[in-house]
Specification:
Blueprint lengths: L8 H17 L4 E6 L2 E7 L8 E5 L2 E7 L1 H21 L7 H17 L8 E7 L8 E5 L6 E3 L2 E4 L3 H11 L6 H12 L15 E7 L8 E4 L1 H10 L1 H13 L5
Antiparallel strand pairs: 1-2, 1-8, 2-9, 3-4, 4-5, 5-6, 6-7, 9-10
């Protein structure tokens, strides 16, 4: 009888993390940004049916990169958790922080279990507040850790480069058109620094809009509305670019 090959726990965890990261990197990136009236989700997604962004509860949105079947299971579990908690206690008791903790426990358990492979997903859970200071954005990597983000966050294949681009250009108080244009510019940058064009029909866009009178703040932006928003900021972005190159733009 042969002796089982020994792998140290540290090496096993490193191998599982590398496996999950490679799986996530094969997917398209997405970004989540704060703007003056809420939070916008933007991603390149040619499918009209397999959504990267979804509503979880009244003020909470969900974004995911990686394997669709795995993050769809997590999304459904999050909806069930939110509905049960809101029904049992109060709708205000359903929070992005509570949901992020549930997802963290699930992802962490799967990642540390030797009986199954780690999930190849990276999640973002966002909640829009009454004011911009009340907005919450949490990023959850494959291992179940929680990262509290502010302003902007990117997940997926080219997340590190996109995050650096957003950190330099995102600012508080942006309009929806400005935030959307910035997100598309960040997503359209290739790893070699070149810019490509992403047509509006290949974009999936959704917002948590704090100004909506309804309890449910999540809505999708498609078709003509999306095209108008992208066109609305073309002029101002060009002017901002020229100001930046001359060093006159405020930091």
């Amino acid at each position: 009888m042969s002796t089982p090959f020994y792998v140290s726990p540290q090496q096993a965890m490193a191998d599982r993390a590398e496996y999950a990261r490679k799986g996530i990197a094969r997917g398209r990136s997405l970004v989540v940004l704060q703007y003056a009236d809420g939070i916008v989700f933007v991603g390149e997604n040619p499918s009209r049916a397999l959504h990267k962004f979804s509503e979880i509860y009244d003020r909470i949105g969900f974004a995911a990169a990686g394997k669709y079947n795995e993050y769809e299971n997590l999304r459904i579990g999050g909806v069930r958790y939110a509905d049960l908690r809101g029904y049992t206690y109060d709708r205000d008791d359903v929070t992005a922080r509570g949901l992020a903790n549930v997802y963290a426990q699930t992802l962490g358990t799967i990642f540390s279990s030797a009986a199954e492979k780690p999930y190849e997903v990276e999640l973002v859970v966002a909640e829009v507040g009454e004011t911009p200071d009340g907005d919450q954005i949490y990023r959850l990597p494959h291992d179940g850790s929680i990262v509290d983000e502010h302003g902007s966050v990117a997940v997926g294949g080219n997340a590190e480069q996109i995050s650096g681009y957003l950190d330099q250009r995102h600012r508080d108080g942006m309009t929806l058109a400005e935030a959307l244009t910035l997100a598309v510019q960040a997503l359209s940058r290739d790893t070699n620094g070149t810019q490509r064009e992403i047509p509006a029909e290949r974009l999936e866009v959704a917002v948590l809009d704090r100004t909506r009178p309804q309890k449910r703040k999540f809505k999708r932006i498609t078709g003509g509305q999306l095209s108008r928003l992208l066109a609305a900021d073309a002029g101002p972005e060009a002017e901002a670019g020229s100001e930046e190159s001359s060093g006159s733009e405020e930091g």
